[in-house]
Model the fold of this input.
Amino acid sequence: MKNQVLQDGAIRSQNFYRSDLLLQHLVERYWNAARKAYFMPLYVGLGEKAATIMDALSLEADKESPSLVKRNHYGETLNDIKFHPAYGALLDIAAGSEMFYPKWNADVRASLGEGNHASGFVVGQLFCMSEMGQYCPLAMTDGVARLIDHYGDAADKAYWLPKLSARSGSDLATGAMFLTEKSGGSDVGANLVTAEAVGEGYYHLNGEKWFCSNVNADVIFVLARTDAAIAGTRGLSIFLVSRYLEDGSRNPMEVVRLKDKLGVRSMASAECLLQNTVGKLYGKEGEGMKIMLDMIALMRIYNAVTALAGERRALVEAYQHLSFRNTFGKNALEHALIRSKLASLCSTYTSDFYLTWHSIFTMDRAEAGDMAAAARLRLLTPMVKYWTGKNTVYVVRECMELVGGLGYIEDGILPKLFRDVLVLPIWEGAGNIMLLDMWRAVQKSDSLQALLSEMELFYTSDTNEYATTIAALEQWKAHYVLIASLADREQQEANLLTLFESLIALYQDFLLRLYHDSESEAWIAGAMAWRAMADAPLQTVPSVETIRAMMGWVW
Done:
């Protein structure tokens, strides 16, 4: 026996896209010919970088976190953020991957047809498998471009959209949104920052923003109170804040300090004082939260994609390690407990994969004018954000344990990955906020009926085959009616977790059936079997071949 961790001949993926059968199958089946032709070289190119060079850059940028340069040698205020060169190299990779260019270049977008979000999120999942910290600023860059495209004037669109979708890191402008304040936190309606009109649609913003991620952004959307007499979110308006004013001077904004975060340390988050900071009003006064929710909804999908990438990378790390590791006289995959754990984690990932990607497809359909898709999306957005954010922490932790002590060592990817994913149940609304948002969606929109109709239409195509599932769906609806009928709001809220988690389980079972075909059978069949066996008194031990099929990963 040799004194080494892995067997002779141990190999690792050299291209995360070419190795991933689930992602390839999705693209091959659902992308039109124009999108395949345009994006395939980009997916393959980024897949190679993510599997080979990005880990080293990501680890370096994480360990050498950004620093605040408050003043220069002469005592002049700078408020600059200094990054390690690895961060710039990662930004070059992100921009070169065309994460945003096809979405915000009108000619390219028109030539590719429906599917702008889906195309970009394949890039995002691949990028995030190696670097999550920078994906937060990149997500907000796309969100800022979205608000400018939806609500901006022609001049802002012409100026900002090319910059926010540039194909080189040096040319790419990045975006941010400053919402959170000490007084409010998740309760944005308690925010205190004020905005005073100074003429021609411009305002001076004053007050403190408590959690400003990507503080060095070129363009920022800021919520501020235009009328102190109007309480809650109705008194908030939204403003575009440029880092530089038209005369080239810095827009006044003091960076008080950088946040010393547990994870996503490559990216700069800060506390900021707005001091007569110049902002341009978007929409009308009092419409701030309504407009900002357009960006927040997109950010929640980004959160889910990031969580999915975390699950996938952790599974890949564990699977690659165990495939070439001998323990107790045999290959690690030959141990029943290891195979059972991997089957469970693969089932979670596959179920989350289709929940996330179905949400993305639904968003694309909604933006193409599908009203039923738009209704479903209202519920799907907080649902997918909540569930994947919760699951990714569990999956990464379990994969770290499967690898063992080596998975706990900081020169590998798993510790950083674990620290990074811990923000995902919190960012863009913590779990309880998502449960309340789901409840608000089902009470104030047609989202639940649209979601149930989608499942019922599928199941009634064969009532004999799906009789048990139809009965379970009816049972859930009765549970919902019971909770909705409760007069005590606190009692309602106390039951939301079990209500929505059971709905998610039903919906994921539906999606596995919906996306099942002769090719996806390899990984979907195992996922469905494991889910069906979850409550059984005895579990069937999956074979090594079953685990390999469920992973959907090749070298």
About this structure: The chain has a mean pLDDT of 96. The longest helix spans residues 288-323. The radius of gyration is 24 Å.
